[in-house]
Amino acid sequence: MATQHLSELIHTTVAALNDGGVTSIVPVDGPALIDRWLGQLDDSPANQQVVTSLHELKSQLESNEPDPVTVKAILLDLSEQLSVRASSVDADFREPLRNLADAILTLATSL
Fold it and tell me: Of the candidates 63, 92, 93, 56, which has an alpha carbon nearest to the alpha carbon of residue 77?
């Protein structure tokens, strides 16, 4: 995983979530952004839960009628997973991952 690309992706995602949340990234840009994440994350056990949540979220966003309750639950899980993950990553990524987890939590609670 390229450190530069991951840093940019974290920043892009946080900015997208903070700039308008659901109205700015869902449903058109959401799956594309998720695909970028899936391309960056490896299949390590540490990333497995996050990858699974991203696949579930993408499936919901691509369905004809996403279930808001399911989307909210996935986002809450994803936020928690990223918060936990932030405590075990390199120092350079701790704060950005916490910011991403917070932005996802804010989006989830607004649904």
Answer: 56
Q: Which residues contact 106 (CB under 8 A, 6 or more apart)?
A: 17, 18, 21
Beta carbons within 8 Å of 78's beta carbon, 6+ residues apart: 50, 53, 54, 57, 104
Cα 75 to chain centroid distance, Å, stands at: 8
Cβ atoms of residues 32 and 54 within 8 Å: no
* Residue 46, C-beta contacts closer than 8 angstroms, at least 6 positions apart: 85, 88
Percent share of the chain, pLDDT over 70: 89
Q: What digits encode the pLDDT tens for the residues 25-44?
A: 445 578 889 999 999 998 88
Q: Where are the domains of the chain?
A: 3-110
The one-letter code for the residue type at 23 is: T
d(CA 74, CA 72): 5
